[in-house]
Amino acid sequence: MATDNASSVTEFILAGLTDEPELQMPLFFLFLGFYTVTVVGNLGLITLIGLNSHLHIPMYFFLFNLSFIDFSFSTAIIPKMLMSFVSKKNIISYAGCMTQLFFFCFFVFSESYILSAMAYDRYVAICKPLLYMVTVSSQVCLLLLLGVYGMGILGAVAHTGNILFLTFCSDNLVNHYMCDILPLLELSCNSSYINVLIVFIVVTIGIGVPIVAIFISYGFIISSIFHISSTEGRSKAFSTCSSHIIAVSLFFGSGAFMYLKPPSILPLDQGKVSSLFYTIVVPMFNPLIYSLRTKDVKVALRKTVGRIFNHNVYNL
Question: pTM for the complete prediction?
């Protein structure tokens, strides 16, 4: 709905993932299931790390924050998305749309930089094991975390500020299941090359800088691993990085595919499918990846379940 004299809208309509009526309810229950797994998985991992003192080390400090980011990220997107499957018009106010965009950008940037912080942690653990507790001290961890969330705020402010300066005319149908940057740029009646350039620059900083940091870290890691004489030692070193490599590949692969290609190569309808990976699939899979592939987490899970079971048996 547009205001009479102003060239801006007061609310948007989110088009959703599809307009096929027969797909609405199956997709609702599918994504509700995804969200449930995401919430249980991430909150479960947060609880597990909090309850087990042997997991109170830098690696799991960063994993704790990754789970918090993934839980918050999915909560900012999926509940509103589910509305599009059960309502005729999924309306979101202008302020609500800008708020969702801000938190979406904040958590995307934060996840990018927490993954690079985790890569640095693995680099120190494998390349400088004797200096690990000194190099990645609690003070260093807190400074890295401050940098992670600081970059998240900067990225969110830059993207949201860019969109706030745009004018939206009579058309208020956002061709997406959330308030994302590219659909809003497409909808605006005064977006220019400068706005697109700002998006590209900010996304390059948000994705490019962490990717470079991760590649440098893994360059040193691979070099150190090849200098390990025993096969068992090399295998153990690789296994400590495998979960992180999978998480990085899923997140940055889907994000780069969505934002670092010109719109002519990747139309928005295909972009909606691509964005499902980093907004829904990645936050769901991260706790599963780290739970199934990390020995310490599996041991902690068994101990915690054992304690709960024994406590219940004792009470009976």
Answer: 0.87
